[in-house]
Design goal:
Number of helices: 14
Structural class: alpha/beta
Number of strands: 6
Strand content: 5-15%
Helix content: 40-55%
Largest sheet: 6 strands, parallel
């Protein structure tokens, strides 16, 4: 469940407008007010997803993309937002300029938002845990997993875990329960996280390797801008395949295997998977099987391919 996806597409207009109010707010008080408005929408969607998934685990990835992606671009939208915030269009434009980043995919996103604006993480933790608590009270099974993205250090996860535990205690008291069952984990998509996975595993119960970004950072290629040179690399056999399509075992694969081995050296029962397009590509799925992952996650249309590839991997390389 990629939280930011609830702000795209049909029916997203109202929550998107509120999200924009939160992003453009100039103070914590204003941000919290906007988050209070946004909360019912986030909990509604999370609860509906948990309910329909039943006894299957649902991994909720906290807000990931750079905030500037949600800044309105048209003059009419900016005027409407400025009016809702009670500020001038000029002030709104100034705030938008402050959010602009030169390299947003390596900028203020993922866990960094939660560290800078803990109230954003708090809202998401509360929505997940209250949705689960309400379903539990209704006698319905659900298994949420909270995934913190773009982490590079154990200290980031400890910072967010402290918030999550505080919210968990408040939710338990509100609903009169001892515990809301859930897992706390992270997405490994930065080389440093893979190389320090033994430390990171001390604070997490599962890893999901985000190999799209891990490939980006390992190769130094922007996956949004490779069209200008990658065809020549493939034609000249400089690279045998597009590394964003087929996981490169010699580099990204080494980081993944290192991360799994280090993580399980600290936490032997660490749940490990992969998230991204590699999770639906046969050669990459075989690699995931060989290094001992528990699952692969991919786009819906790739699920049949992933299932078949996982079956082939088990036939060709049996494991208990």
């Amino acid at each position: 469940f990629r939280t930011e996806h609830m702000f795209y597409g049909t029916g997203s207009e109202e929550p998107l407008f509120i999200l924009r109010k939160m992003i453009m707010s100039g103070s914590e008080k204003a941000r919290r007010a906007a988050l209070d408005e946004l909360y019912p929408f986030v909990k509604r969607d999370m609860k509906a997803t948990l309910e329909i998934m039943g006894d299957r685990p649902v991994t909720f990835r906290l807000l990931d993309p750079p905030l500037h992606e949600f800044v309105p671009q048209s003059a009419d939208e900016r005027r409407e937002l400025a009016q809702a915030l009670g500020v001038s269009v000029e002030d709104l434009d100034r705030r938008a300029d402050e959010l602009h980043e030169l390299n947003p995919m390596m900028g203020h996103r993922g866990v960094r938002l939660g560290v800078t604006f803990p109230e954003i993480s708090e809202m998401q933790f509360r929505a997940i845990l209250e949705a689960a608590a309400e379903l539990g009270r209704e006698g319905k099974a659900c298994f949420p997993e909270i995934m913190v993205p773009v982490t590079c250090a154990k200290a980031e996860l400890d910072d967010q875990l402290k918030l999550a535990k505080a919210v968990h205690a408040e939710v338990c008291e509100k609903y009169g329960v001892d515990e809301v069952e859930h897992l706390y984990g992270t997405m490994i998509e930065i080389p440093r996280a893979a190389l320090t996975a033994d430390e990171i595993a001390k604070s997490t119960q599962f890893f999901s390797f985000g190999t799209n970004d891990l490939t980006q950072m390992t190769f130094g290629f922007s996956r949004d801008d490779i069209g200008g040179f990658l065809p020549d690399y493939l034609d000249k056999k400089i690279l045998p395949v597009d590394p964003f399509q087929v996981l490169d075992r010699d580099s990204v694969g080494v980081l993944v295997q290192t991360g799994i081995e280090k993580g399980r050296s600290t936490r032997p029962n660490l749940k490990v998977g992969i998230c991204g397009e590699h999770g639906g590509e046969p050669n990459s799925v075989e690699f995931c099987h060989l290094v001992g992952m528990d699952y692969v996650s991919c786009s819906p249309y790739r699920v049949p391919i992933a299932r078949l590839a996982a079956a082939h991997a088990q036939i060709n390389h049996p494991r208990d």
